[in-house]
Design goal:
The chain is 32% helix and 26% strand. With 288 residues, it is of the alpha+beta class. The longest helix has 20 residues. The two termini are 32 Å apart. The chain binds aspartic acid (ASP). The site of aspartic acid (ASP) has 14 residues, from β1, β8 and α6.
Length: 288
């Protein structure tokens, strides 16, 4: 079957100043993911490749360029799910790892645990040869500035990917620095399977972005995937899940989805959400 890929670069306020940079970042990340899929590679490898490119790009709030906690540190959340085998890997509040999505992948491959946090997750990175670096080297001037003036709000720029490979397998991945001025030790939805990330070959895959605590309270990614039951449209499932989120919590978010048939959908209730998606093997961008 044909492959399908969708990426997001975060939900939130429009940011015209960084639009060009975000477009270029999403195009590069899409190329990395599509390169895997077009060579009959696995959906799991495609979402990791795409998200790692976005983590390396300082314009996004993930990996390098992540927002800062109230203590002025960087603490990262990431998760990945393989919808073929129901394997998962996630890390929360981890410092000093440039590509937390690769660390989440290592947790998945190891298979002993599903979620690792803090210093123990960092030590696991050292053990598994996932590159580490000094915690401060992930701080950019832009995020330092934002930290000096910011509050505990969602910083647009969380990243995520959902892919279906030519064998029909689905995978989803999400990575973020979280919220500006979050408490040190706070873990958001992006680290939690079912909230920020979910994939089930029988139904679909999803990555969420937006208000983390409301997303957690409604296990939004799984809710959206469950709404795909009965062959319902991904665009409808995304909108319906976001309506439930709004009704139950007042939260705002964005979702990207692919169903078991390879149909792509997305929706957001924030002012905007950047996406790149495959349409007949070509990349289409929606960036504000
Ligand atoms: N959901 C992320 C968090 O709360 C933030 C975002 O997606 O913008 O950590």
């Amino acid at each position: 079957m044909p492959a399908a890929l969708i990426l997001h670069g975060g939900a939130g306020a429009a940011d015209p100043d960084s639009r060009g940079q975000r477009e270029r970042g999403l195009i590069s990340a899409f190329a990395a993911g599509w390169n895997v899929l077009s060579h009959n590679g696995r959906a799991l490898d495609a979402v990791i490749s795409a998200v790692a490119v976005l983590e390396d790009d300082p314009v996004f709030n993930a990996g390098l360029g992540s927002c800062l906690t109230q203590d002025g540190t960087v603490e990262l959340d990431a998760s990945v799910m393989d919808g073929a085998a129901f394997r998962v890997g996630a890390v929360g509040a981890v410092a000093g790892v440039r590509n937390p999505i690769r660390l989440a992948r290592a947790v998945l491959e190891d298979g002993r645990h599903a979620l690792m946090v803090g210093p123990g997750a960092w030590r696991f990175a050292r053990e598994r040869a996932v590159p580490t670096l000094s915690a401060q080297s992930l701080v950019t001037a832009r995020q330092y500035q934002r930290w000096r003036t910011g509050r505990g709000v969602a910083t647009p720029g969380t990243v995520g990917a959902v892919a279906q490979d030519t064998a029909g397998n689905l995978a989803a991945a999400t990575s973020t620095g979280g919220l500006v001025h979050k408490r040190s030790g706070r873990v958001g939805d992006s680290a939690i399977i079912g909230a920020g990330t979910y994939a089930d070959n029988g139904l679909g895959g999803c990555s969420a972005t937006g208000d983390g605590e409301p997303i957690l309270r409604t296990t939004l990614a799984r809710t959206a995937v469950e709404l795909l039951g009965g062959g319902r449209e991904p665009g409808w499932a995304a909108q319906t899940a976001l309506r439930l989120l709004g009704q139950r919590t007042g939260g705002e978010a964005g979702l990207i989805l692919i169903d078991g048939l390879g149909r792509i959908g997305y929706a957001y209730t924030t002012p905007t959400m950047s996406v790149a998606l495959s349409v007949e093997r070509q990349v289409q961008l929606r960036v504000a």
